[in-house]
Amino acid sequence: MSGSLTCNGPHPKACYKKVSNDKDLWDPRFSWDRAKPSDPFLRISGRQPKGPSGDNKIWLIQDHLQRYPRTNETLYVTPEEFCLWMVLQETLDLSLWKVQVGWQLIENSAIISFFGPQKVASEAKTAISKLMIFLNSTVRMNLWPGLIQERRRMSGFFQLGDDLSLFLWKGEACTFRASVTISLSSSPMDRHSMGITAPKVRVLRQHIVNERGIPQVLLQVTLLSSWSGHSSRKRQASKAESQELIANAVTLALQAASQEKSASVVIHPSDLAALAKGITLGVKAFKSKQPPGSSLRNLTIAANDNDFVAECEAECCRWWPRGKDHHVLLPYVLSSWEAVKTKVVVGSLIDQKTDVVVLPWFLKPHNRNGVWETSAQVQAALKIILDAQALFHGNIITLPASSLPGLHCQILYIICLDIRLIQQHLEDKQVIQQVVWSCLNNFLGSFLESISFPMLDLKNPGNSNPLCIMLEEINNFLKEKPNTWMKLVQIVQPPRAATTQKMTENFKTPPEAIVGLCQKEDCAFIRYLNDFPAVFQEFEGHLRKIGCVLQTCVSSGVLKFIAEGGNIYPSNWEKAVEYAFQKNKKRYVVYYESNSDILNVLKNQQSLVKSFANIQEYEGPCFVGPTEEVKMFIQCVQEMAFNEKLVCVEHPILHLPRYTVVKKTINKLLLPHSPVTIALGEDPLGMITFQGPQQNVLEVERQFYSLLSGFKDWPVLLSPFQVQFIQSQGEEFFNENFFLAQDILAVLSTSDGVRILGLDCGELVQAEELLKNLVCERRIDIAEEVQWAASGLEWKALLIAPRSKNKVTFYSVKSQQNILTSVVIVGTKVEVAEAETNIREYLMTYSAAEDRVVFPRPELAEARENLLQIMNWGDLKVNVWIEANHSTLTLILRGPRRYVKEARGVVQTDLDSLVLRTIPIRHREVQQYLSRIGATVLLTFAKELQCLVKMQVPEETTNALLSDVSAYREESELASAHELLRVLRRYRKEHFTLGDTSIGLVQVLGREVNLNKFQEVFDDFINGYYSETFNSDKIVTLSEDCLQEVLDRAYYFPLNLQRHGKLLQIQGFQEDVRKAATAVQALIQEAQDTDRAEALKSVVQWQYDFGNTELSPFDKTTNLKLEEAYRKEEETAEIMLDSRRAQVSLKKRKGLVPDTGKIFNIKRNICIWEMSIPQHWEPMDDNTVKTVTLSPNLKEYQEVARKFMCSMVKNTINKIERIQNPYLWTSYIYKRNWMEKKNPPGVQNEKVLFHGTPPQNCLSITEHGLKSTCRKNGMYGQGIYFAKEAYMSSQYCGHQRYKLMFQVRVLTGEYSKGDVSITFPPEKPGGGRYDSLVDSVGMPKIFVTFFDDHSYPEYLITYK
Known about the structure:
Elements: E1 46-47, E2 58-59, E3 70-77, H1 79-88, E4 100-106, E5 109-117, H2 118-139, E6 153-159, E7 165-170, E8 180-188, E9 200-209, E10 215-225, H3 239-259, E11 264-269, H4 276-289, E12 298-303, H5 306-319, H6 326-337, E13 341-346, E14 356-363, E15 369-371, H7 376-386, E16 396-400, E17 411-418, H8 419-425, H9 428-444, E18 450-454, H10 466-480, E19 488-493, H11 500-504, E20 513-520, H12 523-531, H13 533-544, E21 548-553, E22 558-563, H14 570-585, E23 588-592, H15 596-604, H16 607-610, E24 616-618, E25 622-626, H17 627-642, E26 647-652, H18 656-669, E27 677-680, E28 687-692, H19 694-708, E29 712-715, H20 720-728, E30 746-749, E31 755-758, H21 761-774, E32 776-781, H22 793-803, E33 808-814, E34 820-827, H23 829-845, E35 848-855, H24 858-863, H25 867-870, E36 879-884, E37 889-896, H26 897-912, E38 914-921, H27 924-931, H28 935-944, E39 948-952, H29 977-984, E40 1000-1007, H30 1008-1024, E41 1025-1031, H31 1040-1047, E42 1056-1060, E43 1063-1069, H32 1070-1099, E44 1100-1105, E45 1112-1113, H33 1116-1127, E46 1132-1137, E47 1140-1145, ...
Parallel strand pairs: 7-12, 8-10, 8-11, 11-12, 13-19, 14-17, 14-18, 18-19, 55-56
Antiparallel strand pairs: 1-2, 3-5, 4-5, 6-7, 9-10, 9-20, 14-15, 16-17, 20-22, 21-22, 23-25, 24-25, 26-28, 27-28, 29-31, 30-31, 32-34, 33-34, 35-37, 36-37, 38-40, 39-40, 41-43, 42-43, 44-45, 44-49, 46-47, 47-48, 48-49, 50-51, 51-58, 52-54, 53-57, 54-58, 56-57
Helix pairs in contact: 1-2, 2-6, 3-4, 4-5, 9-10, 12-13, 13-14, 15-17, 18-19, 22-23, 31-32, 32-33
EC number: 2.4.2.-
GO cellular component, one term: cytoplasm
Enzyme class: transferase
């Protein structure tokens, strides 16, 4: 393996504190003088292997990238961009880069050079070029189309002071890696707060992980108001009041963010685009109150609304100057363009396709190493690589992923960790912090995009969640070292770990923590709290008991409730604050006075207010004070103005009909002698007016409302249907003014039953009699035999006609089984009588009837329910049932009597028109095709032509309709019937050769015109029928999946494929068969080419080299191409080498790759020597495998037969064939030579044994040998079984008449007793392994081998 390594590792002092006698933990080369405490992982040098002189030198191992060619990349920039670069160096950590950076300003241009490995230098140039474009466009506040996305744009930069900057961005808040995000939104007020009319703003705190995987604090600022909505009765929240609330809430949220020690905060208004002024005022207020030494440095306002951003920019320009310091702007812009997404996934670490994968390598005692979640191949490769290194805790080794098998990344970071040191002396957080920072430092300087970390769950007891620690450290790194080329940092959890969602929920604070509330309050009340300290202390004392601090803002009319202590459940705290504040506020009242009479009294009696010590007067005029004192004050003022003026009192009318009854009653009793007049507004939402002297008005009011509360409730005894009818007619006829229109002083109520409300009992009785005489009810029972007639459209039309006059209503009465049993008619007397007559006449005209139609036709009886598929009886308005025996069909018609009579004639005519036609089949292949998958064709034709089809075969015992036969392919997979008929017309003039004898019949039942069309279509299909048969040895090797792929292609008609050994027959439509035959021929040719190439590679092998490298073999396809050109004596050939086109000169044995200009040498090697082939074999004639039938007169035949007949005396040999397979024979001979050298002298390494198998396996064994992959479980091991005697193998040859058995040469070598659980030869006591297993070591009769080249099938014996 080529390539160099880089070792970067942590050496914390605690790791090397000597606590045991294990000296392997101590690194003698380590020196604290060379260590930097600030580095998470300290860079150390590796250990040089001892040289010839024996001294141990210290040397620095270079990164694996250093083996790549170094290059110099130059980036040309403008002078403006060069100035930005000079400022940006303070933010970019160039010491971590894998390239050397230089720059120079030359007159009107500048250059930045990158020197280092070619790939890294190119990536660095690209990344810095994009970064310069982004920064230059942002500084100019001018987008360059195509380079910067519209959704991320900076609109303003303002200096709020020496230590605080404000940035305006158009885009999402998740773009910024801020520690705190303030989200502004609005929401309706909670149910428990709906009684409070004043709006408020809630500020909540929550720790979350956003969609980019950034842990942060979310401060949710939510405007809550009961004013929201469109109702005219609800007060709309004014824009100015909302601005004042938002300003105070933003100030409160920024103070909370400052307490979080956050350096950057993002303010994101989601649906408050009109409140830009409130946000800027809140920021201004916070800046004025910002304590010295605050950690907050950057404020960002990010929104997607262009109008909001423009308005916010205008507001910022009013208060602060625009920023010009690039040393502040550029680092911020760089961090804003950083778009790294942190993801937590579940899966295998080695399957990740990121650029870098971090693997922890755990050091065990005596340097026995291990890695989590890797395959055995990766483990083995890593062990070989790392065994050559002296590894200590904290080493980081970088490897190219191409050095290891099965990886999908580019680079592998291997971190060496000593579990014992970590468990005894280090905390998980410290180790994780060191791992994350060191790997990201190395990753940052490589200019790659994605990296995958494993879940570093070290399982130390008492330590915190490792995922939380990793996400926090990744976030801290990216905040300290922002860049634009990193895209993804991924944390991979093994599949056995908890789900990602459950792990990331640890960042959330359940539930959300409350920060505080800002509530809009009357300015007069807030001034009152400031003017009376005792009252303020009273409110504050109650609120502090529940963890709340009260603050006032008189200028904006806002109260702030700030939470004290730790995480507080917001809902409970808010309810407690609301309850405590409202409980105290109920003791005080804010009273606004607008009555001119009372204002005149107050103007003349100014000393009256001063007589109440706890009441304060403000502009309005407004009076604030304790509730009882204010009441006494107002009562005193009102009494002074009471007798000074005539009054006109108005009250809203709550229920106009009742008010009308009371007014008419009072007019009869009081008003003829009273100076008070009563007027009622005609509008139901109008007013009632009492006008006159105040004292008299008060008396009339008292009498009026006394009568209004004394209404009697008079229930009326009516049936539920009468009540329902009256309620349905309420708005038009039976409304509340129904009795008043009849000069009866009563009110009709239908809201809860039917009730009469009034003041006089006589009026109530008169109203009840009127109502009962007006509403009539009749019931009609529906007999069971005509219940079906009460559900059709005619029945509905019968009920709808009288209902249109709105004087009658029908109600259906149903049983528990939801069956209509009666109809109730409710309405006026005349309309009810007329409707009753019509319904009874309708039910008399309908009654259930049944009729039977008998047809003594066997073909119809056999069709049974299938007749319904071709008969159009859906519009007969009767139900049709079919009963049939072997010769008679009976149709049962059920329905209304008049429809049954009409349907009988239609059914009789339709069935008499059906004819049975028989079509003979005289070709067996056609009969086989149609009786199998071709049945779908007949079904398609029959369905399209409305016929029933049946197929009869003489040798079959069951003849059924093809509609009952399950097809091999769904109808939806075939082409449409119209397309099939169009295709068949092409073969109308062709004639299919038929025999004279009918071997099957197709019977079709249908109308004569449809039968003629079916006959025509069937003849067209017979003319287009075609079959083709393939005979090839490769047919056996074709898998079922390959044949299924042939069948799955698009055909007009289904195909039938039959395979019998080497034969494959395709049956179907001519165009379909030819299309499938082309595909099958391609499969056979592909299999033949593959076998030729595979066989040739074992005989002749072409190899190449590039001059100073070892010979490498060509692939088998290229090997075949070169050998064919060589045998044809061609001078040149064109091949593919490493995915590039290459030209080869066979005469000069040279090759050229035109794309790269490289020249390579080629060589032809012969792998099989003719001397290894037995001399008695016949010539192969260019065949890879050949079977030769032996003559019984040959000695070779007699020797094989004698050994076989020793245990098979009752059987007769039919023939013996010699198997000539040079490739299997050569492999076997090589293995035999190897075994003779391996085993001691005297061991019989080779035996002649027997192997029985079914006939279908013989061809595969002849061509490929006995494969260990096909072995099965057995009594003596999981391998290939052979028997010493032929009779033991005969039981595995099948049950056919002629059986097949192989005589096999087997390398048994040294053997041991077998067992069912053995899958590999066991080890010998003296070292090495046995070659085979046996049933008995003393007298073995059964032998078991485990390798392909330990046997050669020499003869194939056919016997019976």
